[in-house]
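Summary for the lay section of the report: proteins are chains of building blocks that fold into shapes. Here we show the chain for 3-oxoacyl-[acyl-carrier protein] reductase and then a coded description of the shape we predicted for it.
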Amino acid sequence: MRFEDRVVIVTGGGSGLGRILAHSFAAEGAAVVVADIARGRAGAVAEEIFDAGGDSLAQTTDVTDASDVRAMVEATREAFGQVDILVNNAAKATDEDFLSLGGETWDEDVTVTLKGTFLCSQTVLVDMVENGSGVILNISSVNALGYYGNEAYSAAKAGILNLTRSLAVRYGPAGIRVNAIAPGTLRTPAWEQRREKNSDVFERLRRWYPLGRVGEPEDVVGAALFLASDEAAWITGAVLPVDGGLTAGNMLMMEEMIKGQGEQS
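The coded shape description reads as follows.
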């Protein structure tokens, strides 16, 4: 198993992609700390992992609170030892028009998504530098690579990409690797509010994806496990889109261009 005797923290691990990642690392032998702001969600996932024969610990953590983050890392040390891998997955996105977006809402999205990544990374890096090894995997988004709405969330996710490269360069000499994944649309509970308003939202979105569908959380697992593993020992500072081809180009736009040319002729 790729992560036997490794200790992994997954923030936002109580649901969606975080839950799937927590289970996947545990299945590969890691002791997994499931950190989530919702106590019930964190506890449920940790219990699922335990019931499946894995080692897990639930932590109720607000990633925007430095004392909460320190407590999470200290609890990890006490339960399993020092952190080998940190997966910064916790994020918040508010679906609101930019002109009506309030400053408090902007701050909340940016604080959870970007400041949370900063605080968690800073806290685990102390031990990682001392150990001379460690992996930080940041979950960014295609929203960091182009315009797909959610301006505050997108700005924060773009900031994560710069932070990824900065930490990779600064702490590479200490034996620490830092990479990011930029997923496209994933079928997770985060989309439930939009699905309640538009039940066919995934059907409409799939037309924009060259592979013809939106993603499932499981589609991100392979990339995450690879980048966190020793198989990626010479990869750092990288951003890997896992997006069904969304950022590769726009087939619908090309078809409109061809159609327009035909009409002109």
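Put simply, here is one thing we learned. The radius of gyration is 19 Å.
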